[in-house]
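Async update (no meeting this week)

Hi team, since we skipped the sync, here's where things stand on the single-chain job. The sequence we agreed to prioritize is pasted below, unchanged from the tracker. I ran it this morning and attached the output directly underneath so nobody has to dig for it. Comments welcome in thread, and please keep replies under the output.
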Amino acid sequence: MQPQRPTFSLAGAGSVLIGFTAAVIALGTLIGWAVGQLRYGLAFGAVVGIPVGVAATVIKYRNA
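Output:
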C-alpha cells in the first residue's frame, strides 16, 4: 500500500498566493505608515509581496 500523495487544489494554491501577497503588502503599508511614507510602504510591499506569494505557493505545492 502506497502512501497517498497530497492532491493539488487550484483554490488552495490561489488562497496561499493571495494570502501571502496580501500579508506582505499590509506589512509594508504598516511600516510605511509608521515612518510617514504610506505610499512608498504600499509600493514596497507590493513589489516584495508578489514574489513572496509565488515562492510560498511553489514551496507548498512543489510535489503535488
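Quick observations from my side:
Residues 12-60 form one domain.
The chain has a mean pLDDT of 91.
Reply here if anything looks off.
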